[in-house]
DNA sequence: GTCCCTG
DNA sequence: CAGGGACAACGCGGG
DNA sequence: CCCGCG
Protein backbone atom coordinates (compact mmCIF):
# COMPACT_ATOMS: atom_id res chain seq x y z
CA UNK A 1 0.00 0.00 0.00
CA UNK A 2 1.95 2.98 -1.27
CA UNK A 3 0.97 6.58 -0.75
CA UNK A 4 1.58 10.09 -1.89
CA UNK A 5 -0.38 13.29 -1.58
CA UNK A 6 -2.50 12.88 -4.69
CA UNK A 7 -3.02 9.16 -4.97
CA UNK A 8 -3.73 6.33 -2.58
CA UNK A 9 -2.90 2.89 -3.95
CA UNK A 10 -4.85 0.01 -2.45
CA UNK A 11 -3.65 -3.58 -2.87
CA UNK A 12 -6.88 -5.52 -3.31
CA UNK A 13 -7.57 -8.95 -4.77
CA UNK A 14 -4.13 -9.09 -6.33
CA UNK A 15 -4.31 -5.71 -8.03
CA UNK A 16 -3.04 -2.25 -7.19
CA UNK A 17 -6.04 0.04 -7.43
CA UNK A 18 -5.38 3.78 -7.62
CA UNK A 19 -7.67 6.12 -5.71
CA UNK A 20 -6.96 9.60 -7.03
CA UNK A 21 -7.99 12.67 -5.01
CA UNK A 22 -8.59 10.45 -1.97
CA UNK A 23 -9.40 13.46 0.21
CA UNK A 24 -12.12 14.88 -2.02
CA UNK A 25 -15.38 15.19 -0.10
CA UNK A 26 -18.04 12.98 -1.70
CA UNK A 27 -20.79 13.20 0.93
CA UNK A 28 -21.25 16.75 2.24
CA UNK A 29 -23.45 15.95 5.26
CA UNK A 30 -20.70 14.37 7.36
CA UNK A 31 -17.82 15.00 4.98
CA UNK A 32 -16.92 11.45 3.98
CA UNK A 33 -14.31 11.44 1.24
CA UNK A 34 -13.66 9.39 -1.83
CA UNK A 35 -11.23 7.28 0.19
CA UNK A 36 -13.94 6.82 2.85
CA UNK A 37 -16.19 5.45 0.12
CA UNK A 38 -13.48 2.98 -0.89
CA UNK A 39 -13.14 1.97 2.77
CA UNK A 40 -16.92 1.53 2.96
CA UNK A 41 -16.85 -0.99 0.11
CA UNK A 42 -13.90 -2.77 1.74
CA UNK A 43 -15.91 -3.05 4.95
CA UNK A 44 -18.93 -4.64 3.25
CA UNK A 45 -16.85 -6.67 0.80
CA UNK A 46 -18.03 -10.14 1.84
CA UNK A 47 -21.80 -9.61 1.65
CA UNK A 48 -21.34 -7.27 -1.32
CA UNK A 49 -19.56 -9.90 -3.35
CA UNK A 50 -22.10 -12.54 -2.31
CA UNK A 51 -24.83 -10.33 -3.76
CA UNK A 52 -23.08 -8.77 -6.77
CA UNK A 53 -20.05 -10.94 -7.49
CA UNK A 54 -19.71 -12.19 -11.05
CA UNK A 55 -22.50 -9.96 -12.36
CA UNK A 56 -22.31 -7.26 -15.02
CA UNK A 57 -22.87 -3.83 -13.53
CA UNK A 58 -23.59 -0.34 -14.79
CA UNK A 59 -21.81 2.54 -13.08
CA UNK A 60 -23.57 5.65 -11.80
CA UNK A 61 -20.76 8.18 -11.60
CA UNK A 62 -20.40 11.42 -9.66
CA UNK A 63 -16.75 12.42 -10.27
CA UNK A 64 -17.14 15.39 -7.91
CA UNK A 65 -19.26 13.60 -5.35
CA UNK A 66 -22.85 14.21 -4.30
CA UNK A 67 -24.16 17.45 -5.76
CA UNK A 68 -21.81 17.37 -8.73
CA UNK A 69 -22.75 16.43 -12.25
CA UNK A 70 -23.41 12.77 -12.90
CA UNK A 71 -23.88 10.23 -15.64
CA UNK A 72 -24.39 6.53 -16.15
CA UNK A 73 -21.70 4.42 -17.76
CA UNK A 74 -22.46 1.04 -19.22
CA UNK A 75 -19.55 0.51 -21.61
CA UNK A 76 -16.15 -0.20 -20.03
CA UNK A 77 -12.94 -1.22 -21.73
CA UNK A 78 -9.77 -2.62 -20.20
CA UNK A 79 -7.02 -0.04 -20.65
CA UNK A 80 -3.28 -0.29 -20.74
CA UNK A 81 -3.26 1.06 -17.20
CA UNK A 82 -5.75 -1.56 -16.01
CA UNK A 83 -5.42 -4.57 -18.32
CA UNK A 84 -6.97 -6.83 -15.69
CA UNK A 85 -10.47 -5.36 -15.94
CA UNK A 86 -13.07 -7.99 -16.79
CA UNK A 87 -16.06 -7.20 -18.99
CA UNK A 88 -18.99 -9.15 -20.36
CA UNK A 89 -21.41 -8.55 -23.20
CA UNK A 90 -24.84 -7.23 -22.27
CA UNK A 91 -27.73 -6.34 -24.58
CA UNK A 92 -30.49 -3.80 -24.83
CA UNK A 93 -34.03 -4.80 -25.85
CA UNK A 94 -33.29 -3.93 -29.48
CA UNK A 95 -30.17 -6.11 -29.57
CA UNK A 96 -27.48 -3.44 -29.17
CA UNK A 97 -24.54 -4.93 -27.31
CA UNK A 98 -22.15 -3.36 -24.82
CA UNK A 99 -19.14 -4.52 -22.85
CA UNK A 100 -20.06 -3.98 -19.22
CA UNK A 101 -17.84 -4.18 -16.18
CA UNK A 102 -18.12 -7.45 -14.27
CA UNK A 103 -17.90 -7.28 -10.48
CA UNK A 104 -15.50 -10.20 -10.28
CA UNK A 105 -13.78 -8.98 -7.12
CA UNK A 106 -13.33 -5.94 -4.93
CA UNK A 107 -10.58 -4.57 -7.18
CA UNK A 108 -13.18 -4.10 -9.89
CA UNK A 109 -15.49 -2.37 -7.41
CA UNK A 110 -12.76 -0.01 -6.22
CA UNK A 111 -11.67 0.71 -9.77
CA UNK A 112 -15.21 1.98 -10.31
CA UNK A 113 -15.11 3.95 -7.06
CA UNK A 114 -12.02 5.74 -8.35
CA UNK A 115 -14.02 6.70 -11.42
CA UNK A 116 -16.46 8.44 -9.09
CA UNK A 117 -18.98 5.60 -9.02
CA UNK A 118 -21.11 5.74 -5.88
CA UNK A 119 -23.40 2.83 -6.68
CA UNK A 120 -23.96 0.01 -9.14
CA UNK A 121 -26.94 -1.04 -11.23
CA UNK A 122 -26.79 -4.81 -11.43
CA UNK A 123 -27.92 -7.24 -14.12
CA UNK A 124 -30.11 -10.16 -13.01
CA UNK A 125 -27.70 -12.72 -14.44
CA UNK A 126 -24.10 -13.68 -13.94
CA UNK A 127 -21.57 -13.02 -16.66
CA UNK A 128 -20.94 -16.76 -16.82
CA UNK A 129 -24.58 -17.57 -17.60
CA UNK A 130 -26.10 -14.70 -19.58
CA UNK A 131 -29.16 -16.66 -20.72
CA UNK A 132 -30.60 -17.29 -17.26
CA UNK A 133 -31.91 -14.67 -14.84
CA UNK A 134 -31.05 -16.11 -11.43
CA UNK A 135 -32.65 -13.33 -9.42
CA UNK A 136 -36.27 -12.24 -9.02
CA UNK A 137 -36.47 -8.65 -7.82
CA UNK A 138 -39.69 -7.52 -6.19
CA UNK A 139 -39.61 -3.76 -6.61
CA UNK A 140 -42.04 -2.01 -4.25
CA UNK A 141 -42.66 1.54 -5.44
CA UNK A 142 -44.75 3.88 -3.29
CA UNK A 143 -47.21 6.11 -5.11
CA UNK A 144 -46.99 9.77 -4.14
CA UNK A 145 -48.32 10.21 -0.62
CA UNK A 146 -47.56 6.63 0.43
CA UNK A 147 -45.37 6.49 3.53
CA UNK A 148 -42.87 3.95 4.72
CA UNK A 149 -45.27 2.11 7.07
CA UNK A 150 -47.26 0.99 4.01
CA UNK A 151 -44.06 -0.11 2.30
CA UNK A 152 -43.21 -2.25 5.33
CA UNK A 153 -46.65 -3.80 5.23
CA UNK A 154 -46.29 -4.43 1.50
CA UNK A 155 -43.00 -6.24 2.03
CA UNK A 156 -44.57 -8.39 4.75
CA UNK A 157 -47.36 -9.30 2.31
CA UNK A 158 -44.79 -10.30 -0.32
CA UNK A 159 -43.00 -12.45 2.20
CA UNK A 160 -46.23 -14.13 3.33
CA UNK A 161 -47.27 -15.01 -0.22
CA UNK A 162 -43.86 -16.34 -1.17
CA UNK A 163 -43.65 -18.32 2.09
CA UNK A 164 -46.98 -19.97 1.23
CA UNK A 165 -45.45 -20.93 -2.10
CA UNK A 166 -42.33 -22.31 -0.43
CA UNK A 167 -40.08 -19.54 -1.79
CA UNK A 168 -37.48 -17.88 0.45
CA UNK A 169 -36.95 -14.15 -0.03
CA UNK A 170 -34.82 -11.39 1.48
CA UNK A 171 -35.41 -7.65 1.93
CA UNK A 172 -33.28 -4.56 1.46
CA UNK A 173 -33.87 -0.86 1.51
CA UNK A 174 -33.52 0.81 -1.88
CA UNK A 175 -31.63 3.77 -0.48
CA UNK A 176 -34.61 5.92 -1.45
CA UNK A 177 -38.25 5.58 -0.33
CA UNK A 178 -39.01 1.97 -1.21
CA UNK A 179 -37.96 -1.58 -0.50
CA UNK A 180 -36.72 -4.44 -2.64
CA UNK A 181 -37.36 -8.10 -1.91
CA UNK A 182 -34.99 -10.54 -3.62
CA UNK A 183 -35.33 -14.21 -4.49
CA UNK A 184 -32.26 -16.13 -5.62
CA UNK A 185 -33.36 -18.48 -8.43
CA UNK A 186 -32.09 -21.73 -9.77
CA UNK A 187 -30.57 -20.77 -13.15
CA UNK A 188 -33.33 -22.41 -15.17
CA UNK A 189 -35.41 -19.50 -16.54
CA UNK A 190 -34.85 -16.62 -18.93
CA UNK A 191 -35.84 -13.01 -18.28
CA UNK A 192 -39.18 -13.33 -20.09
CA UNK A 193 -40.21 -16.17 -17.80
CA UNK A 194 -39.04 -14.41 -14.65
CA UNK A 195 -41.06 -11.34 -15.65
CA UNK A 196 -44.13 -13.52 -16.25
CA UNK A 197 -43.77 -14.89 -12.73
CA UNK A 198 -43.42 -11.35 -11.48
CA UNK A 199 -46.64 -10.30 -13.24
CA UNK A 200 -48.49 -13.20 -11.64
CA UNK A 201 -47.13 -12.35 -8.21
CA UNK A 202 -48.08 -8.67 -8.53
CA UNK A 203 -51.63 -9.59 -9.53
CA UNK A 204 -52.04 -12.10 -6.71
CA UNK A 205 -50.78 -9.53 -4.23
CA UNK A 206 -53.31 -6.98 -5.45
CA UNK A 207 -56.10 -9.57 -5.18
CA UNK A 208 -55.16 -10.19 -1.57
CA UNK A 209 -54.65 -6.61 -0.50
CA UNK A 210 -56.27 -4.22 -2.99
CA UNK A 211 -56.26 -1.62 -0.24
CA UNK A 212 -52.46 -1.74 -0.05
CA UNK A 213 -51.02 -3.03 -3.32
CA UNK A 214 -51.51 -2.43 -7.02
CA UNK A 215 -50.29 -4.27 -10.09
CA UNK A 216 -51.27 -1.47 -12.46
CA UNK A 217 -48.56 -0.21 -14.79
CA UNK A 218 -50.60 2.97 -15.41
CA UNK A 219 -50.12 5.61 -12.75
CA UNK A 220 -53.67 6.86 -13.09
CA UNK A 221 -54.93 3.49 -11.83
CA UNK A 222 -52.58 3.08 -8.91
CA UNK A 223 -54.16 5.30 -6.32
CA UNK A 224 -52.44 5.79 -2.99
CA UNK A 225 -50.98 2.31 -2.94
CA UNK A 226 -47.70 0.47 -3.33
CA UNK A 227 -46.97 -0.51 -6.95
CA UNK A 228 -45.42 -3.95 -7.40
CA UNK A 229 -43.20 -3.07 -10.36
CA UNK A 230 -43.22 -6.33 -12.30
CA UNK A 231 -41.53 -4.65 -15.27
CA UNK A 232 -38.35 -4.26 -13.26
CA UNK A 233 -37.86 -7.94 -14.09
CA UNK A 234 -38.07 -7.38 -17.84
CA UNK A 235 -35.07 -8.84 -19.68
CA UNK A 236 -31.94 -6.67 -19.60
CA UNK A 237 -33.29 -4.37 -16.87
CA UNK A 238 -30.93 -3.56 -14.02
CA UNK A 239 -31.68 -2.71 -10.39
CA UNK A 240 -29.71 -0.60 -7.92
CA UNK A 241 -27.59 -3.15 -6.16
CA UNK A 242 -27.44 -4.39 -2.59
CA UNK A 243 -24.86 -2.41 -0.57
CA UNK A 244 -24.63 0.31 -3.24
CA UNK A 245 -24.58 3.94 -2.11
CA UNK A 246 -27.07 6.55 -3.25
CA UNK A 247 -26.09 10.05 -4.32
CA UNK A 248 -27.60 11.49 -1.18
CA UNK A 249 -25.78 13.98 1.10
CA UNK A 250 -25.95 11.34 3.87
CA UNK A 251 -24.80 8.53 1.59
CA UNK A 252 -27.85 6.33 2.12
CA UNK A 253 -27.21 2.71 1.30
CA UNK A 254 -29.39 0.08 -0.34
CA UNK A 255 -28.99 -2.06 2.75
CA UNK A 256 -29.98 -5.69 3.13
CA UNK A 257 -31.63 -6.52 6.45
CA UNK A 258 -33.38 -9.47 8.07
CA UNK A 259 -37.14 -9.96 8.28
CA UNK A 260 -36.89 -9.54 12.04
CA UNK A 261 -35.82 -5.96 11.41
CA UNK A 262 -38.67 -5.08 9.06
CA UNK A 263 -40.81 -3.36 11.67
CA UNK A 264 -38.13 -0.93 12.78
CA UNK A 265 -35.87 -0.44 9.78
CA UNK A 266 -35.47 3.24 8.91
CA UNK A 267 -33.83 3.89 5.53
CA UNK A 268 -32.29 7.24 6.56
CA UNK A 269 -30.41 5.44 9.36
CA UNK A 270 -28.60 3.15 6.93
CA UNK A 271 -25.72 5.11 5.48
CA UNK A 272 -22.13 4.82 4.36
CA UNK A 273 -21.28 5.64 8.00
CA UNK A 274 -23.63 3.28 9.87
CA UNK A 275 -23.73 0.20 7.66
CA UNK A 276 -20.12 -1.01 8.14
CA UNK A 277 -20.46 -1.38 11.94
CA UNK A 278 -23.75 -3.19 11.41
CA UNK A 279 -22.02 -5.68 9.11
CA UNK A 280 -19.14 -6.08 11.54
CA UNK A 281 -21.59 -6.83 14.34
CA UNK A 282 -24.26 -8.90 12.55
CA UNK A 283 -22.59 -10.29 9.43
CA UNK A 284 -24.51 -10.79 6.19
CA UNK A 285 -28.30 -10.51 6.65
CA UNK A 286 -28.71 -12.49 3.45
CA UNK A 287 -26.31 -15.30 4.38
CA UNK A 288 -29.09 -17.91 4.14
CA UNK A 289 -29.96 -17.07 0.53
CA UNK A 290 -30.16 -20.23 -1.60
CA UNK A 291 -31.48 -20.90 -5.12
CA UNK A 292 -35.26 -21.27 -5.27
CA UNK A 293 -37.68 -22.66 -7.82
CA UNK A 294 -39.87 -20.30 -9.83
CA UNK A 295 -42.42 -23.05 -10.56
CA UNK A 296 -45.02 -22.07 -7.93
CA UNK A 297 -45.24 -18.56 -9.37
CA UNK A 298 -45.33 -19.90 -12.92
CA UNK A 299 -48.31 -22.04 -11.92
CA UNK A 300 -50.02 -18.89 -10.70
CA UNK A 301 -49.25 -17.31 -14.05
CA UNK A 302 -50.68 -20.26 -15.96
CA UNK A 303 -53.83 -20.10 -13.86
CA UNK A 304 -54.27 -16.42 -14.78
CA UNK A 305 -53.70 -17.11 -18.47
CA UNK A 306 -56.18 -20.00 -18.38
CA UNK A 307 -58.70 -17.64 -16.80
CA UNK A 308 -58.34 -15.36 -19.82
CA UNK A 309 -56.03 -12.69 -18.46
CA UNK A 310 -53.50 -11.19 -20.86
CA UNK A 311 -49.88 -10.35 -20.30
CA UNK A 312 -49.35 -6.91 -18.72
CA UNK A 313 -47.99 -3.84 -20.56
CA UNK A 314 -44.27 -3.78 -21.25
CA UNK A 315 -42.14 -0.68 -20.76
CA UNK A 316 -41.30 1.69 -23.63
CA UNK A 317 -38.49 0.62 -25.94
CA UNK A 318 -39.54 -3.04 -25.88
CA UNK A 319 -41.18 -4.38 -29.01
CA UNK A 320 -44.81 -5.42 -28.83
CA UNK A 321 -45.02 -8.79 -27.13
CA UNK A 322 -47.37 -11.69 -27.84
CA UNK A 323 -50.55 -11.46 -25.74
CA UNK A 324 -49.61 -7.97 -24.58
CA UNK A 325 -52.60 -5.68 -24.07
CA UNK A 326 -52.59 -2.29 -25.84
CA UNK A 327 -49.71 -0.29 -24.41
CA UNK A 328 -51.69 2.83 -23.66
CA UNK A 329 -53.01 4.43 -20.49
CA UNK A 330 -56.73 3.68 -20.15
CA UNK A 331 -57.64 7.36 -20.18
CA UNK A 332 -56.00 7.75 -23.58
CA UNK A 333 -57.23 4.53 -25.13
CA UNK A 334 -59.25 4.64 -28.30
CA UNK A 335 -62.90 4.10 -27.56
CA UNK A 336 -63.76 0.51 -28.29
CA UNK A 337 -66.56 0.28 -30.82
CA UNK A 338 -67.82 -3.23 -30.20
C1' DG B 1 -12.30 11.05 -13.72
C1' DT B 2 -10.46 9.79 -17.79
C1' DC B 3 -10.18 9.53 -22.62
C1' DC B 4 -10.14 11.45 -27.00
C1' DC B 5 -10.77 14.88 -30.28
C1' DT B 6 -10.31 19.58 -31.71
C1' DG B 7 -8.04 24.09 -32.34
C1' DC C 1 -1.29 22.00 -24.72
C1' DA C 2 -5.81 23.76 -23.20
C1' DG C 3 -10.53 23.10 -23.69
C1' DG C 4 -14.68 20.56 -24.33
C1' DG C 5 -17.71 16.58 -25.17
C1' DA C 6 -18.81 11.79 -24.06
C1' DC C 7 -19.81 8.64 -20.68
C1' DA C 8 -27.82 4.77 -20.40
C1' DA C 9 -30.96 3.60 -21.15
C1' DC C 10 -33.83 6.66 -26.15
C1' DG C 11 -36.56 4.03 -29.30
C1' DC C 12 -41.28 1.71 -29.22
C1' DG C 13 -46.52 1.60 -29.03
C1' DG C 14 -50.60 4.23 -29.15
C1' DG C 15 -53.80 8.35 -30.29
C1' DC D 1 -46.70 15.64 -33.27
C1' DC D 2 -47.67 14.16 -28.23
C1' DC D 3 -47.49 10.96 -24.34
C1' DG D 4 -46.67 6.63 -21.56
C1' DC D 5 -42.84 4.40 -17.86
C1' DG D 6 -38.39 3.53 -14.86
MN1 LIG E 1 -38.18 0.97 -6.99
MN1 LIG F 1 -39.73 0.57 -10.16
- The number of helical runs is 7
| Terminal CA distance | 74 Å
Q: Output the structural class.
A: alpha+beta
Please identify, by name, the CATH architecture of the largest domain. Alpha-Beta Complex
Fraction in beta strands: 15-25%
**Averaging pLDDT over every residue, what do you get?**
95
- Label the overall shape: globular
Query: CATH homologous superfamily of the largest domain?
Result: DNA primase, PRIM domain
CATH class of the largest domain: Alpha Beta
> What integer value in Å does the Rg equal?
21 Å
| SSE arrangement, N to C | EEEEHHEEEEHEEHEEHEEEHH
Fraction of helical residues: 10-25%
Low-confidence stretches: none
The overall strand count is 15
The small molecules bound here are:
manganese (II) ion
* Named CATH topology of the largest domain: DNA primase, PRIM domain
- Biggest beta-sheet profile: 6 strands, antiparallel
Structural commentary:
By secondary structure, this protein is an alpha+beta fold. It folds into two domains: 2-122, DNA primase, PRIM domain, CATH 3.90.920.10; 135-237 and 291-312, DNA primase, PRIM domain (Alpha-Beta Complex), CATH 3.90.920. It has seven helices and 15 strands. Strands 5, 6, 7, 8, 9 and 15 form a six-stranded antiparallel sheet that branches. It has a five-stranded mixed sheet with strand order 11-12-10-14-13. Strands 1-2 form a two-stranded antiparallel ribbon. Helix 1 (34-43) runs antiparallel to helix 3 (106-114) and helix 5 (191-208) crosses helix 7 (295-306). The longest helix has 18 residues, at 191-208. The N and C termini lie far apart (74 Å). The mean pLDDT is 95. It binds manganese (II) ion (2 copies). Residues 139, 141, 229, 232 line the site of one manganese (II) ion. One manganese (II) ion binds next to strand 10. It binds three DNA strands through strand 5 and strand 6.
